[in-house]
């Protein structure tokens, strides 16, 4: 749960990002050393991407992350469809950053 008093926590209309590494249990069992590096990379790249876009990471969930970002005052007048498009753009940017760190792009 977000603590509105916590410095940097989003407020107002907030876009949330939740990540999960697909198949992580199987991957941990197959090669824990590789998975440890993959998880560290996942967390570092996404944290940097979230923070670079004025977002706030508020939880790590083992193999995932939870983050939020307040919409600007302009964003408060957005329609639901515009907010969804904005959220998808932010998620795509985080995905691109993660793939770039992995050398996939």
Helix amount = 40-55%
The count of helical stretches stands at 3
Terminal CA distance = 34 Å
- Mean pLDDT level: 78
Based on the coordinates given, report the CATH architecture: 2-Layer Sandwich
In order across it, which strands form the biggest sheet? 1-3-2
Percent of residues in beta strands: 15-25%
Q: Could you describe the largest sheet, including whether it forms a barrel?
A: 3 strands, antiparallel
CATH-assigned fold name: Alpha-Beta Plaits
Number of domains: 1
Q: Give the oligomeric state of the chains in this entry, treating copies of one chain as homo and distinct chains as hetero.
A: single chain
Within CATH, the superfamily carries the name: Nucleotide cyclase, GGDEF domain
The CATH class designation is Alpha Beta
Shape type: elongated
Q: How many strands?
A: 3
Strand and helix order: EHHEEH
Low-pLDDT runs: 1-5
């Amino acid at each position: 749960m977000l603590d509105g008093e916590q410095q940097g926590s989003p407020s107002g209309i907030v876009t949330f990002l939740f990540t999960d590494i697909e198949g992580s249990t199987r991957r941990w069992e197959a090669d824990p050393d590789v998975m440890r590096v993959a998880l560290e990379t996942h967390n570092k790249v996404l944290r940097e991407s979230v923070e670079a876009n004025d977002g706030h990471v508020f939880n790590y969930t083992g193999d995932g992350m939870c983050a939020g970002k307040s919409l600007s005052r302009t964003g408060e007048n957005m329609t639901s469809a515009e907010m969804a498009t904005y959220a998808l753009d932010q998620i795509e940017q985080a995905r691109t950053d993660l793939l770039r760190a992995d050398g996939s792009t």
